Amino acid sequence: MKVPFVSFLPLERELGAELRAAFERVLARSWYIGGEEDAAFERAFARAVGVDHCVGVGNGLDALLLILKAMGVGAGDEVIVPSNTFIATALAVTYAGAKPVFVEPVPETFNLDPARIEAALFPRTKAILPVHLYGQPCDMDAVMDVANRHGLPVVEDCAQAHGACWRGRPVGSFGLAAGFSFYPGKNLGALGDAGAAVTNDAALAEKTRALGNYGSDRKYHHLYQGHNSRLDELQAAFLSVKLPHLARIGEDRRRTAARYLSEIRHPEVILPAVRPEATPVWHIFAIRCARRAELEAFLKAEGIETGRHYPIPMHLQPCYASLGLPEGAFPLAEEISRTELSLPMYYGMTPEEVSAVIDAVNRFPRGGQP
Ligand SMILES: *Cc1c(COP(=O)(O)O)cnc(C)c1O
User: Fold this and answer.
1) In the chain, N or C terminus with fewer CB closer than 10 Å?
2) How much distance in Å is there from the Cα of 248 to the middle of ligand 1?
């Protein structure tokens, strides 16, 4: 049986008519940037996250970058980021002019280890940027505890974790602000690029919005050298169609993950751990295996598509050679990059597809004794 790594078809089949109606509505109004669709989605998304303000922006990277700039993070400053995440987290920091300081994860959850934050704090540290990676919430009790003890603001990267909760509270509502991505492949995806910044701080929201709109507070009056990064009306209308379904999209992914967690049994496969406080939304279902390339090839031959998230840790990326961080600097992130394999995970996987993945992993021939 062929199982793709990801498919948008099940959701598109259910919501296609509504998405087309949203397109017709925007076209009939003939208004494409900064209008009522954007405002309506921002209100609904802020309510869903449990915060006061939402600012629609062009993508998830810009959401983080504009928040950091609005906070005044810039040249000479440092920001704590996980050593294991997608490159955008670090790019937001370096685009702001600051330096990313990497902190290692807890390998079992892949998320930032709060116990390691303190040792990475310096006088120039301006913020802590935890990522709710693969849709698993970070330990926000511990992160907020360190942050509060040192008087540091927290900016959450929620690009992979729409609707995920820690102790029943949605991610994005813990820190000073949070960035979301609505890239099509994310759990809440637009039909193109889109993102949002959320916060309870009205002044921060206003500055973030101005920074994404050429730095202007009113037309042709520019307070800052801003960016052009706005949520357009079409994407906002599409997102408003999908948002009411986010909770059941998360439930569907949790059903698939629950089967993976209980039915995959292989001595060489390490399954992700879930903390009792966590309600993950499984953007990615990441396993670890020392013989990853062999497992990957075996699954491919069985028709099961997989992914690697991410094959090269950020500190070893050519674009960050200037940070001067050698191989071995972040052994846990490096180990994850060598052993991580992502199994198929998307809304609407059939029980047969889930079974096919489980069955294939369990049949992966055991490695010989060394
Ligand atoms: C996708 C992603 C981003 C960036 O979002 P874009 O919309 O692609 O700019 C940021 N952080 C993480 C962890 C992501 O997965």
Assistant:
1) C
2) 22
Find the 265 Cα to ligand 1 centroid distance in Å: 32
What's the full length of the chain, in residues?
A: 370
3 state DSSP class of 44: helix
Tokens of 205: 């929201």
Q: Of 68, 157, 283, 310, which is best to mutate to test ligand 1, by the most ligand atoms within 8 angstroms of its C-beta?
A: 157
Q: What share of the chain is helix, strand, coil (3-state, %, to 5)?
A: 40, 15, 40
Stated pTM of the model: 0.98
Stated as kind and residue range, the H or E segment containing 92 is helix 87-95
Retrieve residue 235's tokens: 């994407």
**Residue 217 phi, psi dihedral angles, 5° rounding:** -90, -30
- CA of 322 from ligand 1 middle (Å) equals 22
Taking each continuous run of H as one helix and of E as one strand, the counts in the chain are 11, 14
- 85 in contact with ligand 1, CB cutoff 6 A: yes
111 touches ligand 1 (CB under 6 Å): no
Q: Whose CA is nearest to atom 5 of ligand 1?
A: 60
Q: 48: which residues sit within 8 A by CB, 6+ positions away? A: 163, 170, 243, 246
> What's 278's DSSP letter?
E
Quick check: CB of 139 below 6 Å from ligand 1?
Answer: no
State whether the beta carbon of 157 lies less than 6 angstroms from ligand 1: yes
